[in-house]
Amino acid sequence: MPFPQQENQARNGSILEQQKQALPEVSSPLTIAKSVSENQRLLIEAYLKLLDMVAASQESTRVVASITKNRYLVYVHGISQHQYGYSNSWWQALQPYIGKVFEDGNLGDTRQEVLWSDLVNSSTALDIVDTRQKEQLKREILAILEDRQRQEIAVKTGGGRQVFLAMQTRVIEPSAILGIDDFLIYMLSSEMRQQIINRFTDTVKPLLGNNNQIDIISHSWGTVVAYEGLRELEAEKFLQGQVSNFFTVGSALSIGPVRTSLRPENQDGRRPSMVNKWINLDAQGDLVGGMLGDMFEITQENLGLQPAGCLLELFGYRLSCAHGSYFVKENTTVNRDIFAHCILE
Predict the structure, then answer these.
(1) pLDDT range class, residue 66, cuts 50, 70, 90
(2) How far is Cα 266 from Cα 259, in angstroms, rounded to an integer?
(3) This protein's superkingdom (predicted)?
(4) Architecture of the domain made up of 71-344
């Protein structure tokens, strides 16, 4: 076993060589034995300290890895056509404020997408629901959106006759823009509902099953899919992971007929058991979103947010702009102060 060298002897060969040269001058063999024993003790102590340092370094690495590599972000889109990669711009608006929580946020790795719009946009989807039921439910939803618009105009104008006049020129934008027609299929067909929810659970279940920590950002009609999907996963016994934050953005869960169309077991509004925090967001002019705290077990609500990038017109913001304003880069209130703040807590 080698022995440590004295600093002033570093260029004069090994300690053993030096000791051999020094033997004629040593008066007692006992002195040599003590010297060798002392060197061994110092060497052992240094070795043990090195092991402690390596162990501490490995433990630190494990802690960092548990924060980054076991943390996933899941996006859930609303209605209208979406393609793989729809969350790229959403992620680019958020990433500057969260560092390496999700590592590089590569799509398909620490960033996952739930993609389901192709199901309700298929050519056969329109034939699986009763036309009369569909039209009736559509009228009910549009009536609620029109009433919300009337209330927003009243706030801007002071009410009275001006609200009536404004409603003649400021009609609700075509329902195709809002995706109402497509989402009615989800609400009226239990078979289609299950297929769509399966798209959600197929993505989220493996992450929770591997004891990961995930954050879910759902938008518009996708908030309904995410909520019912999480409630369905509650029945799974071996999902040890947690949803740190469940964000519902511009949520259709605020609309009465949507609430009553939820599965009976989900109409109690309970927060899914694996969700730590449920944060709801709604912007001015976004008639689809609204308050959820009156029915659902919400942790935090952020209502009446300024819709970044939207022009304030005479009677308020346009629905089509406000409804998508949460994910633009200019919206630091949402991406930095709400999304990132909650994720980093």
Answers:
(1) very low
(2) 9
(3) Bacteria
(4) 3-Layer(aba) Sandwich (3.40)
Containing 196, the helix (H) or strand (E) segment is helix 190-209
pLDDT tens per residue, range 217-272: 999 999 999 999 999 999 888 898 999 999 999 999 999 999 999 999 999 999 99
Torsion angle, alpha carbons of 325, 330, 331, 333, to 10: -170
List, edge to edge, every strand of the sheet that includes 71-76: 111-114, 71-76, 213-219, 242-249, 275-283, 300-305
Predicted confidence (pLDDT) at residue 296 exceeds the cutoff of 80:
yes
Please report the sign of the dihedral spanned by the C-alpha atoms of residue 82, residue 88, residue 92, residue 97: positive
Cβ neighbours of residue 98 closer than 8 Å, sequence gap 6 or more: 339, 340, 343, 344
Q: At how many degrees (to 10) do helices 180-188 and 222-233 cross?
A: 30
Sign of the Cα torsion 9, 14, 20, 26 reads positive
State which H helix or E strand residue 233 sits in: helix 222-233
